[in-house]
């Protein structure tokens, strides 16, 4: 076999990517009368590939930069690699991506630069080498929403047992002309922040405490207000991330203190207990979805899971509207909801098109408000018959917001009391103090 070793190596390098290792082994055995096994061919390919790269790095007049793989803050990756490519692979970005070891179903190329180094060491079976510089972006595929809804509902039916409801009694002491609105709680459950980095601590335990504090305030306020109906919005970045590797829906890395399964389980348990508590205090609990930009999928799954759990409960009603902009009508009041993460131009278009999307609700209402989140700070504006309010967030400041100097907003959540005929009656503020461990400051 030694007499044919160089020819065999050359054949393997030239046909890599065109033939499988087994096909190459069979062909070589036929050509040279050898007894090569699949594993032997594989070892020869990688051994000679490494030698070729070493030769190129040592002998090329203009040496390529050192290989690296850099992770960028926005979730993208930048790579510089030296690889073998066939003529066909060089013409196909998808093939280059595969040779680099990345799945085209999960990554897309933003930029691709290929430099070539010619090698004349044919006796070693070496052909062309390529230095590839590429920027990769996580690929978020859009699915048909109706398919997602149907699949999610079917899955939830299999794994969640609806609760048995024995008591659907209503109270005559409650005023059905009054509405208690609980906007989406922008908790960012799972977020991790440390005092040393941001000046305050935030983790899943603090998040749970604040959520439970909000529920307690709801009950205390309700026993004074005695509203007949509770309007509960779920979403608004309730979860801090949306993927198994702690990325937001659009691929931005997050610092979390929990694995994704645990985070979802805690969130589901918190809202189940909250709704069970609320249904004892109200005659009706009406629930709508308002997805944030951090957790589009996770908040949707949470909503469907809760819907399935309370499916037999006549006091708890879930809307089947899953759009990002929604409207809740109550007498002469129209409450519109949207996360509000699209920027100033989007906000202007949103305000201008609410009457188009909800003509009946808009025409019927005397009091109209748009409630959004996202900015973690309060903002109020009245324009063209619509009051816009940004709802605060009980979430702590993470490292990204600290480094970008998004500081100073009061950590809070608002509750709203409405009257069918008189509109908004009262706003209840729930403020939270920053939690941090004591640190020593050096003084002279």
Number of helices: 13
Number of strands: 15
Helix percentage range? 25-40%
Query: How are the strands of the largest sheet arranged?
Result: 8-7-6-5-14-15
Domain tally = 2
The proportion of residues in beta strands is 15-25%
Write down the Rg.
30 Å
CATH superfamily of the largest domain: Metallo-dependent phosphatases
* Major β-sheet profile: 6 strands, mixed
Mean pLDDT: 85
Going by CATH, the architecture of the largest domain would be 4-Layer Sandwich
H/E series: HHHEEHHEEHEHHEHEHEEEHHEEEHEE
- Say what the CATH topology of the largest domain is: Purple Acid Phosphatase, chain A, domain 2
* Structural class computed from helices and strand pairing: alpha/beta
Architecture overview:
It is a single chain. The chain is an alpha/beta fold. The protein folds into two domains: 2-138, no CATH class; 145-432, Metallo-dependent phosphatases (Purple Acid Phosphatase, chain A, domain 2). Helix content is 35%, strand content 23%. It is built from 13 helices and 15 strands. The strands form three sheets. The chain has a six-stranded mixed β-sheet with strand order 8-7-6-5-14-15, covered by helices on one side. It has a five-stranded mixed β-sheet with strand order 9-10-11-13-12. Helix 2 (21-32) packs across helix 3 (38-59), helix 8 (204-225) runs parallel beside helix 9 (260-279) and helix 9 packs across helix 10 (296-309). The chain is elongated, with a radius of gyration of 30 Å.
């Amino acid at each position: 076999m030694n007499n044919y070793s160089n020819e065999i190596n050359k054949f393997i390098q030239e046909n890599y990517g065109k033939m499988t290792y087994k096909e190459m082994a069979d062909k070589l055995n036929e050509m040279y009368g050898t007894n090569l096994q699949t594993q032997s061919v594989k070892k020869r390919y990688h051994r000679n590939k490494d030698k070729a790269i070493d030769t190129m790095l040592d002998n090329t007049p203009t040496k390529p930069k050192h290989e690296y793989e850099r992770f960028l803050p926005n979730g993208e990756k930048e790579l510089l690699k030296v690889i073998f490519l066939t003529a066909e692979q060089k013409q196909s970005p998808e093939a280059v991506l595969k040779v680099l070891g990345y799945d085209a179903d999960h990554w897309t190329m933003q930029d691709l630069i290929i430099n070539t180094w010619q090698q004349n060491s044919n006796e070693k079976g070496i052909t062309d080498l390529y230095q590839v510089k590429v920027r990769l972006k996580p690929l978020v595929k859009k699915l048909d929403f109706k398919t997602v809804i149907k699949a999610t509902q079917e899955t939830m039916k299999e794994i969640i047992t609806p609760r048995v409801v024995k008591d659907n009694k209503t109270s005559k002491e409650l005023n059905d002309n009054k509405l208690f609105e609980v906007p989406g709680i922008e908790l960012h459950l799972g977020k991790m922040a440390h005092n040393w980095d941001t000046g305050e601590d935030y983790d899943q335990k603090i998040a749970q405490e604040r959520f439970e504090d909000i529920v307690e305030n709801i009950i205390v306020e309700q026993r004074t207000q005695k509203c007949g109906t509770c309007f509960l919005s779920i979403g608004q970045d309730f979860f801090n991330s949306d993927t198994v590797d702690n990325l937001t829906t659009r691929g931005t890395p997050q610092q979390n203190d929990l694995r994704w399964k645990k985070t979802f389980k805690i969130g589901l348990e918190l809202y189940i207990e909250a709704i069970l508590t609320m249904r004892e205090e109200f005659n009706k609990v009406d629930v709508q979805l308002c997805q944030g930009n951090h957790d589009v999928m996770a908040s949707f799954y949470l909503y469907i899971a809760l819907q399935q759990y309370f499916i037999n409960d006549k006091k708890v009603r879930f809307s089947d509207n899953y759009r990002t902009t929604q409207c809740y009508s109550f007498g002469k009041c129209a409450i519109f909801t949207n996360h509000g993460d699209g920027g100033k131009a989007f906000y202007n278009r949103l305000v201008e098109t609410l009457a188009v999307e909800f003509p009946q609700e808009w025409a019927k209402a005397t009091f109209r408000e748009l409630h959004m989140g996202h900015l973690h700070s309060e903002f109020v504006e009245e324009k063209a018959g619509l009051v816009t309010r940004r709802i605060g967030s009980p979430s702590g400041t993470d490292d990204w917001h600290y480094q970008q100097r998004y500081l100073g907003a009061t950590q809070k959540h608002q509750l709203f009391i409405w009257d069918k005929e008189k509109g908004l009656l009262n706003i209840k503020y729930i403020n939270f103090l920053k939690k941090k461990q004591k640190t020593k400051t050096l003084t002279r």
